[in-house]
Amino acid sequence: MKREIFKTAGFIRTPENIINIKSNNNVSKWLEEQQVPDALDFYNLSSDANFIRYFNEVWNQVLEKTELQNVVYVISNYLFDDSFPPAWDMFERNRVDMLPAVIILTGWQQHMKNMAKKNFSPEQIEFHKNEIKNSITNGLYVYNQPGMLMSGMIWSSIVVRANLIKLGRLQYETKTAEDFYACKDIAAGENIIGMHIPRGQPLFPEDVNKSITEAKKYFRNAKFVCETWLLGKELGDYLKPESNIANFRNHFNVVKTLDAESIYRFLFNETSKKPDISKLPQDTSLRKSVKQAMLSGRHFHDAIGVLSNNLSTKLNTKTK
């Protein structure tokens, strides 16, 4: 499939090997078979009038244009194929709309099959459905954007593949270490468990400990790895020793600093990679201190940490 077709859909960057996936000669029939309207019910999106308004604008365009249907077909086949690694930073668009949501929703039947194949419990299935719903709508409700972000599309592809489970406070992804993980503690190509920290709730130490204990029983003899802004070296200078984030950091041996600064997105809810720092919010003590450091020229990098064998014993008191 020629790259020019992706550009008509707003994609200014796609993975190199995506052009090897051939377009579908009967793509309209394929799209009908995906039963996207039923996916809206499956993920409990039908009742969200705000989302439906933005979604229908793009969905109607897809139904009318064969080129857009082929873009959806090719990207769908790429994202949901386990032979391809998750395509972080491989997709970039010059617009924000609900086309990524259309792409993700074409995978809902495959998602059901993947969850059944892995014998997911009803609790895990419900978590997966909510995770897709949240990923599709976070652009609207977290970042005030009129569509689904590229990061949400890639994250959703991991969920559709059913390579993710939730154990208490944290989430765990079965994955293969890509080349950028390579260091003295991690070999490129080895099987690892990626740890993820859902936003929206405090990282109470007792909850983190409980989740890690459960994960070690579930994934026996696994190597747990966390790639996050929370482990960045610079951030440590602005944390109170007794804070929840500091406690979380104590679980890991940092093995690599990355040339990435996702702190903008996760701490400040800012989608731009190079935002106007002076306009970043400072309504919490951490946001304020980090923002002031950024204004003075400091950068806050992501890092990769390997889970240590010791559980933290510093437990904060929960507040109601």
How would you briefly describe this protein structure?
Helices cover 42% and strands 12% of the residues. It has 13 helices and eight strands. The longest helix is centred in the middle third of the chain and has 20 residues, at 122-141.
Written overview of the protein:
Helix 5 packs across helix 6 and helix 8 runs antiparallel to helix 9. The protein has 13 helices and eight strands. It is of the alpha+beta class and 320 residues long. The strands form two sheets. A six-stranded mixed beta sheet has the order 3-4-5-6-8-7. Helix 10 links the parallel strand 5 and strand 6.
Please trace the helix and strand order, writing H or E for each element.
HEHHHHEHHHHEEEHEHEHHE
Q: Can you give the mean pLDDT?
A: 93
Number of helices: 13
Question: Which percent bin holds the helix content?
Answer: 40-55%
Please indicate the percent range of residues in DSSP E strands (runs of 2 or more): 5-15%
Shape: globular
> SS-based structural class?
alpha+beta
Q: Report the sheet with the most strands, covering strand number, pairing sense and barrel closure.
A: 6 strands, mixed
End-to-end separation? 55 Å
Spatial sequence of strands, sheet with the most strands: 3-4-5-6-8-7
- What's the β-strand tally? 8
